[in-house]
Amino acid sequence: MLLRDVLKEYKFDCKARKLSVKTIDGYMRMNGYLFDYLEQKHGIYDVEQVRASHIKQFLLLKEEVGAKPQYINDLLKVFKCYFKYCVDEEYIQTSPTAKVHNVKQPKVLIRTFNEAEIRKMMNYCNGRDFVSMRNKALLAILFDTGMRLNEIVTMKREQIFDEYILVHGKGNKERLVPVSPFLSKVLIRYQ
What we know:
- By secondary structure, this protein is mainly alpha-helical.
- It contains 8 helices and 2 strands, in the order αααααααββα.
- It has helices spanning 3-16, 21-42, 52-64, 69-88, 115-124, 130-145, 149-153, 181-190, and strands at residues 164-168, 174-178.
- The chain has a two-stranded antiparallel sheet with strand order 1-2.
- α3 packs antiparallel against α4 (69-88).
- The protein is elongated and about 65 Å long.
């Protein structure tokens, strides 16, 4: 079975599982990179012809051109999902990704803002104009709730309640985030 024909079926399966358009597009694009490589370097067009060594060579090539370990592992995760689908649909018996392991990633320590830096940012937005009040509300929500930027940008007024915010997160998952007295005060001034 042709790699790209199975990819069309896989895309339909992803839609049926209600994955986001962004996720599906990413899957299609990343698998396309592998398929282009397999076709151009190895003349491989069929699912049955793909071996672990081909995938390892592709990932090594990505590493050599400077791709970060996180990106390489993301690619591998996408390939594993695709080939698992191929096994589930009985196009192949075993996945060529079964013996391909993740690249070791360096531990990244995220430097957070200290209290003085947070105060400085909040004080910078102390004006009475709309933009200052909006910016202060955005910063307060970010610092007080830990919500993602996209969750804040797409938030509607109906999601904000006196004691909590109803957050629509990644994968259409909902969660309740408590609103502190400070944040409540900032939001009242903004509205």
